[in-house]
Amino acid sequence: MPRTQRNDNFIDKSFTVMADLILKFLPTDRKAKEAFAYYRDGMSAQADGEYAEALENYEEALRLEEDAIDRSYILYNVALVHASNGEHDKAIESYSMALDLNAKMPQCLNNMAVIHHHLGSLAEQRGDADERDRCFDLAADCWTKAIRLAPNNYLEAQNWLKSSGRGSADVYF
């Protein structure tokens, strides 16, 4: 049974009805509508913690979707699933692919920075200073780019960049 038929709460049912109405009247081809339906089902599965099902839906949406911007958001959600599963390399790869399609996604850069910072903290706990510095430098680079795209966001990252000495003055203006 498709996920859209399994929604059992009012909000999910309402969202599904609205999305179906929009799909019916949206002036786009059948393939794009089908891609959106898979994307919507992937988001629903992801929200329910059904990550394998979400990835299957996202893969099908990627197979069908031709628009680069839409593909970037699908890849962003794929990365979120991988990050939730602790698959850091796959998450970073998916975020990078999303950015290749749509360079104006500071949320990808922020999430990549969070992963690099986490890996740097783990390296620090192990006493691996070289790996710590490499990961923290990658985090700083990603956060710097994210802040340049969205200067009013990521205040904690801005504070970390300042306090760690990894930020440059031009990031804060």
From TrEMBL:
GO BP, sorted A to Z: photosynthesis
Record's keyword terms, sorted: Membrane, Photosynthesis, Repeat, Thylakoid, TPR repeat
Primary location class: membrane
GO cellular component, one term: plasma membrane-derived thylakoid membrane
Membrane-spanning ranges: none
Positions annotated as TPR repeat: 35-68, 35-68, 72-105, 72-105, 120-153
Pfam (any one): TPR_16
Membrane topology annotation: Peripheral membrane protein
Keyword Transmembrane: no
Gene3D superfamilies reported in the protein's UniProt record: Tetratricopeptide repeat domain
PANTHER family named in the record: CELLULOSE SYNTHASE OPERON PROTEIN C, TPR REPEAT-CONTAINING PROTEIN MJ0263
Function description: Seems to be required for the assembly of the photosystem I complex.
Family: Belongs to the Ycf3 family.
Protein's UniProt name: Photosystem I assembly protein Ycf3
Gene: ycf3
